[in-house]
Specification:
Blueprint: H1 11-24, H2 30-46, H3 55-68, H4 74-87, H5 95-108
Length: 111
């Protein structure tokens, strides 16, 4: 991406996940992983998934997605995380909004 082009929010977090995946799984192509995770960041942004969350909760969603999207069953992992945020919200400011963001992500990503 040219340096003067601004990408979607949280793209750095997703791209770091792509790089971590390729370090852990040498059979994964780095450029393909970067493309997939950049698309994930773009879909979240274009789908307005994080717009109703404050910065803290939006970062929590992105961190959770970066873990769940590389699991064996990303759809199940994200749905489980959505439910877990309602049961034990931890330090989330808007657990219902976070849970909804996870479920919206499942729909947008067609997981």
């Amino acid at each position: 991406m040219p340096p003067d082009t601004v990408g979607p929010p949280f793209q750095d977090e997703f791209l770091a996940t792509a790089e971590a995946v390729t370090r852990a799984r040498p059979e994964v192509d780095l450029e393909m992983a970067r493309e997939v995770f950049l698309e994930a960041a773009t879909l979240l942004h274009n789908g307005l998934v994080l717009d109703d969350l404050d910065e803290h909760d939006a970062r929590a969603v992105v961190a959770g997605l970066c873990v769940d999207l590389v699991s064996g069953d990303p759809g199940a992992a994200v749905r489980a995380r959505a439910q877990a945020t309602l049961v034990d919200p931890g330090g989330l400011h808007d657990p219902e909004g976070v849970s909804a963001a996870y479920l919206t992500t499942v729909a947008i990503f067609q997981l």
